[in-house]
Structures are given as structure tokens and as C-alpha cells.
Amino acid sequence: MQPELGIIEGFYGRPWTWEERASTITFLAPHGYGFYLYAPKADVYLRRRWKEAHPEEWADELARLAAHCRSLGVRFGVGISPFEIFGGFDADARDAMARKLAFADALGVQDLAILFDDMRGDQADLAERQAEIVDWAAGRTGAERVIVCPSYYTDDPVLDRVFGQRPDGYVERLGELVDPRIHMFWTGEEVVTREWSVPHLERVTEQLRRKPFLWDNYPVNDGQRMSQYLHLRGFTGRPAAMADHVAAHGVNPALQAVLTRIPMLTLPASYQQGKAYSYFAATRAAAGQVLGEPLGQTLWEDVLFLQDVGLDRLDAKEKVLRERYSGVDHPGAREIIAWLDGAYRITDEIVQTQ
User: Which of 38, 46, 273, 328 makes an SS bond possible with 277, Cβ 3.0 to 4.6 Å?
Assistant: First the structure.
């Protein structure tokens, strides 16, 4: 048994192209990925400039992507990050939110996400303010499903250091106030959780008063440190027993739209094979399926350098990698060369300003 799986394009930095989005959804849909949520941090019209309308060409591309999802039987959704709206949900903010909800409805969204992540949250009435906004939006959207991301979406204290100390009992209070029909994202014990456990999920279910909707931050590689690595190995630490304890399992993919399909193919295998699952074998099989042979074998031989060593520490190995992948007529090989060229580097400034 596996839960509903999906793609959450929610990373910082260089976003996927429209073609990359469509082809990735097409590739993963037959493997159980049944929803796609459009929420790249680089879309300023969903985040820092959320009150402004998308340019016409951008809106047209989104409409085409939504239609593409529908043609595949994949749920299409949009994530709105109304930047620090809970500081003052006044008439101007309500009008702007109403316009954005109408825009999403015109696209035909089935899923609407209200995202309060990565914003200042150190105010005593945070849960009350956010619950008011979510309730207001849920009553005005045509989406079939609404999902909210709390400001503190993990136990990880790094959020408190960066965005201010979370209010006492924040998660529990938000879970109490938000309609139980609305889902809530959760990234686990850490922002980038290495391993999930049933006891943890049971505890979070009690706190949220609903099963968590997982926002899994692997294989994403969008931080200043993480962009130094290509996340290619199969999923680990996601036992099949999780399936009964989550509302759904969304994956935040890597910046490399083709290479990310390798680890993402292994998540369904992890659920389906249970205790028989081998991430080592699953990675090798997925590499061949995504890249074909012999390129899949070549990448498999280089996983140690691509995922573990780091771009700035490759030294002489960089020349070897360039020789192996330069001129190979495959988008996955071109992504490796672009990564070596620094095209996917993320800086702290990018994270702080998107």
C-alpha cells in the first residue's frame, strides 16, 4: 500500500522551465505521482509580490500546465505564499487574496495551498491570525482540497533561530482552530528529515488533529550548501508502515528536473516493496530507467562523487566528469555539465530575497 504521492515544486533558486514541468509530470504520473503543486519560490507573484497579477504570458503558461495535468489525470494545484499577510489581514489584503483565489479558480486548480513557511512568526496570536486567513480563503476557493503550511512546519529549532521563536503551543493551537477538512503540511523532525517513524507521525497527528500531509525535502538541493550536491540516491528512512499514518506524501524535487526523477522513482518502490526494498538496487534500476543504458551505468559509477564529495571539492575529478558527460546527447547528462558549470548554485542571498 502507498499513500497518494505527488510533486511539490517548492524550491528556491532557478525554477524549472515549462517544458521541464510538463515532461516531469508526464514521466512520473504512471508511477503513482497523482498531484502536482506549483509553488516555486522564484514566482514572485505567489510570494513577495503576491498582491500583483501574473503577467499574461505567465498566466497562459500556467493554464496550459493545468490542462496538461488534467489530460494525465493528475491533480493540479497552486501554492500561495501571502508574504506576512498575518501582520494585517485588512480590506486591502482581503481584496488582493480574493483576486488571487479567482485567478487560481480560473486555472481550474483542484488543490489550493496557503503557505506560511519561511516568514517571521514570533507573535503570540500567530495561530489565531493564520486560522482566520485560512478559513476566509477556504470559503472562497473553488479548489476541492485546501492545504496549509504552518510557519513552524517541523520540530527543527533552526526555524526558531531564523524566523523567531515559535509561540508556545503554536502547532496544537493551529490544529485546534483550522477546520479538520483542511490538510496541513509537515516536513518531519527536521526541515530535511533523514528518517520518518510511525511514533513521530502519530504524535504529530495528535498535535495537528489530522494526519500530516508530508512535504518531503528530499531530493531537493536548493540551499547554499545543498546545491553543491546532486541528490541521486534512492529514498531511505521512509518505511512502508508510514502509509497508514499520512494524508499524502508530497516530494519537493531537486533543481535538476531530469536527474530528480531517479530518486523520485524509488519512493513508490519503497512503499510497494516494504521490507524487501533495497535503496541501492532501486537507485541503479531507476538510473537506467531515466537515463537509459549505458548512461545509467555511468552515473551509477559516479554517484559517490556527484552526491557526496561536493562541487567545490571535486578537484581533478571534475575534469574526469566533464569528459564522461560532455557531448552525451541526453538532458540528464546536460544537467550534470550545467551543475559542474555552477548553473544551479544557490546563495544565501537568493534564499533571503525570493
Answer: 273
Task: Give the mean pLDDT of 303-313.
Answer: 96
CATH of the domain at 246: 3.20.20.80
Is residue 172, in this structure, part of any structural domain at all?
Answer: yes
Q: Where are the alpha helices (DSSP H) in the chain?
A: 18-28, 56-72, 91-107, 126-138, 158-163, 170-177, 198-208, 261-273, 279-291, 295-303, 316-325, 331-340, 348-353
Model confidence pLDDT, tens digit, residues 108-142: 999 999 999 998 889 999 999 999 999 999 999 99
pLDDT of residue 351: 86
CA distance 238 to 184: 19
Positions marked catalytic: 118
Give me the number of domains the chain comprises.
1
pTM of the entire predicted model: 0.96
Q: What are the backbone angles phi and psi of residue 35, rounded to the nearest 5°? A: -145, 155
Q: Which of 319, 310, 307 is nearest to 283 (CA)?
A: 307
User: What's the average model confidence in pLDDT over 150-168?
Assistant: 95
Determine, yes or no, domain membership for 346. Answer: no
Residue 232 in contact with residue 303, Cβ under 8 Å? yes
Q: Kindly state whether residue 108 falls inside one of the protein's structural domains.
A: yes
- Is there a domain that residue 79 lies in? yes
Residue bearing cell 546545491: 227
For Cα atoms 229, 39, 335, give the angle at the middle one, nearest 5 degrees.
30
Query: What average pLDDT does range 80-88 have in this prediction?
Result: 84
Please report the pLDDT score of residue 7 as a whole number.
98
Residues 6+ apart with CB under 8 A from 341: none
- Residue 156, judged by CB atoms within 10 A of its CB (0-12, 13-18, 19+), counts as middle
Q: Which domain holds residue 239?
A: 5-285
- Residue 84 pLDDT > 80, yes or no? no
The residue type of 295 is L
Spell out the residues 6+ positions from residue 103 whose beta carbon is closer than 8 angstroms to its own.
53, 54, 59
